[in-house]
Amino acid sequence: MAASPADARVVVIGDALVDAIDGASHPGGAALNVAIGLTRLGVPARLIAMVGDDEPGRVLREHCGRHGVELVATPAPLGTAVATAVRDGDTMRYEFNAAGVERFVDLEGLEPLLAEAPLVVVSCLALEHERQVAPLLALDRSAERLLIDPNARPAYLRETGAVARFAQGLDALAACALLVKLSDEDAELVYGEDADETASRLVAAGARAVAVTRGPGGATILTADGAVDAAVPALAAPIVDTIGAGDSVLASLTASVVSGARGWAGPLERAMAVAAATTRSAGGLLQLPG
């Protein structure tokens, strides 16, 4: 596992959006959660995301500033992404505005930031677009600096052929990744297969490690040398919600790489503890284990 200078910023690329719930605006987005989670774990982070010069964008800028995340806002021709919560009986579903559905993080001109970053973390990016994937494929493959969470969302992949293109983009990036984090839902949506099957295939294709998360069932990290498992620790406090749990896992594993941890067993156990603590608090903000 690679380490990085303590004063260098990890680059996180992906979604940053506002969740509109009952008339209130809440900062969200998987990549934003990971970037802020890293800073809460003591790792300086830079977030590259599509953020507009509008009211939702102001909310996101203030949130990043409050948590010490350097935000690089890329062009947002349709404004900032907003997910509006709509109550459907006892459940909640989200409707995305045009900026959310047509998400694209324009990396043109930002290649030097990617080249100098100790690690590049990708979460919930439009991998169905070749132009989105190309700058990441141009990274130095020998440096083992790329970590990926597809965070595939059905609402983003409704266009004909989008799922197949997303799978192609993910396969290309996974082949040169230090770590791919997958949920059961990701594997089913993108590949129509079990996550363990996906993990084995991605490792065989070149991924150094694949983490499969199973919610309360814990997680497994598979490498060419075998697999390590970790359970979610039992806590006395009840679960409040699971928002940001997966993002906290990715942030924790990334922080372990930065620290130079050896092997994946300890980092995975730590990530499960972080995820458990995060589910005991409302919202997606990473929480530290007690």
Tell me the number of helical segments per DSSP (H or I, 4 or more residues long): 10
Query: What is the terminal separation in angstroms?
Result: 26 Å
As laid out across the biggest beta sheet, the strand order is 5-4-1-8-9-10-11-12-13
Helix fraction? 25-40%
* Rounded Rg: 17 Å
What average pLDDT do the residues reach?
A: 93
Strand content: 15-25%
Structural notes for this entry:
The structure is a single chain. The chain has 290 residues and is of the alpha/beta class. It is 35% helix and 23% strand. It contains ten helices and 13 strands. It has helices spanning 30-40, 55-66, 98-101, 111-116, 130-137, 162-174, 184-191, 195-205, 245-259, 265-278; strands at 10-14, 17-21, 24-28, 45-50, 70-74, 81-88, 91-96, 120-123, 146-149, 179-183, 210-213, 219-223, 226-230. The strands form two sheets. It has a nine-stranded mixed β-sheet with strand order 5-4-1-8-9-10-11-12-13, with helices on both faces. The chain has a four-stranded mixed β-sheet with strand order 3-2-6-7. A hairpin with a 5-residue loop joins strand 11 (210-213) and strand 12 (219-223). The relative contact order is 0.14.
